[in-house]
Fold:
Amino acid sequence: MTTVQSPPAPTAALRPKVVARTGLYAVLAANVAVVTVFFVQAGFASNALIVLGRLAGLYGALLMAFQLLLVARLPWLDRRIGMDRLTLWHRWAGFSLLWTLLAHAVFITFGYADSSGLDPVNQLIDLTETVEGVLRAVVALALIIVIGLVSARFARRRLAYETWHFIHLYTYIAVVLAFSHQVAVGTTFVASPTATAYWWTLWAVALGSVALGRVLLPLWRNYRHQLRVSAVVPENDNVVSVYVTGRDLDRLPARAGQFFLWRFLTRGRWWQANPFSLSAAPDGRTLRLTAKAAGDGTAALRHLKVGTRVFAEGPYGAFTTMHRTRPDALLIAGGVGVTPIRALLEELHGHAVVIYRVSSDRDAVLYDELRDLARAKGAELYLVTGPVAPDKLAPGELARLVPDVADRDVYVCGPPGMTATVLRSLRELGVPKPQIHFERFSLAG
Structure:
């Protein structure tokens, strides 16, 4: 078998993920420092509980703005970090925000209660009745508590995605209410013209990022490209490929390994956004997605009519060749997770090994394409079939198939259980973390 000889993939002095992650940390740390300085300049209350409550409130406002930035879907961040990790950080920040705002409410209430002689419950009632903006803050906190509860794992697993997403949208109401509370009674907010300008700028950037990444950019791209279904091709009884064409697709910044949130504008589906990876590298003329029937929505894809209008948000994801560190690669796919792997193989240079893990031969979607593509590119392809146990992707098996695995970039995509197993195997084989690339595609189909 001949091997394609290509120049080694350049190893950047600073990897894109490191640059983006460090930048986010630096921005957050700088803003924490600025908020702390403004807090000190505003002066301290005589009551220590009130001081702690005000500081917790300021950090809560900062966390809320930072949360918005994480889910704004800004292309620069998304291509370098990935929606799955940004969403995970958003989740962590959300629970931190919940506890910070609870601390703010408790410290402020008990602090004023200590000064007035009222019990905490009556003190809270008095504050809501006499101080402008406090009632709005209480409503905002109640909304955040509800959102936090439905976002907890035990509740999230029991809710339909659409239900969870609808409840989550109330976050924006909470943001507006919290900001109006800060404007009305925030000591630090009005401490100086500089502090006031800072907070207005912070919220403008946070909300503007959301508007740009989640509204304006998708609207502009869909207006520009006018996407439509050009073909629907069943791959087997449960899997279908949908081909989408449009105008100027060569100017759409999509890469192999990325995914879109697809809306097919039919009467019963226009409101549903399904995340599916590209199953072929973008060629400037056509986009292809391949999906397995996992419910009524995905099962209906095979009944789409040619010419159906498509509204696509994206491209999203950092599962691309942008993050390569080595000249050779190992691609590991499980089940329908083969879709971004097949697209990546098309774009990769250097020698590649592809391992495709399925239960049986009939589950090997796109296998013929993979085989032909591997042959054309001089890649090695292994189809691994059989039950889950014994583990056929254990460290010994991987080392047997790919002896130089530690010298390759490794891309992994498949069901969560398989992905976790493979990642453990790679760690045991000593594959450096920067060479391991994966995204939790449970977020993305």
Q: What stands out?
A: The radius of gyration is 25 Å. Residues 83-116 form the longest helix (34 residues). Confidence is low (pLDDT under 50) at residues 1-12. The domain at 226-316 is CATH 2.40.30.10 (Elongation Factor Tu (Ef-tu); domain 3).
